[in-house]
Fold this sequence. Notes:
The chain has 98 residues and is of the alpha+beta class. The protein has two helices and six strands. The protein has one domain. A hairpin with a 3-residue loop joins strand 1 and strand 2 (13-17). The termini are far apart.
Amino acid sequence: MENFVIHIFGYGETQLITEVESLKYETKNLIKVEPLVDAIWNLKPEDFSGEKKYHIINFFSKNDVRWIDENYFQLKAEESLSTMIDELITEIKDYKPN
């Protein structure tokens, strides 16, 4: 999937937006979110100061990831996240809430 947006909201929801659908679920029900958040945090720039908290993490396709809180950092074309992003997309699309 080339064109998509994912939002991981700090208040506890995760949303996938594609050209044909918009799906939003509670983050606690998606097991692929936290490992991806950890991977992004581990790739933060060395000069980034702040705690591991966020208001929102935005994914604009796989080429632009933005960690936003009081402080902000951006990852461009970070290939190491590609598989994890694909796994999250699959989990969101396959998720069936009770």
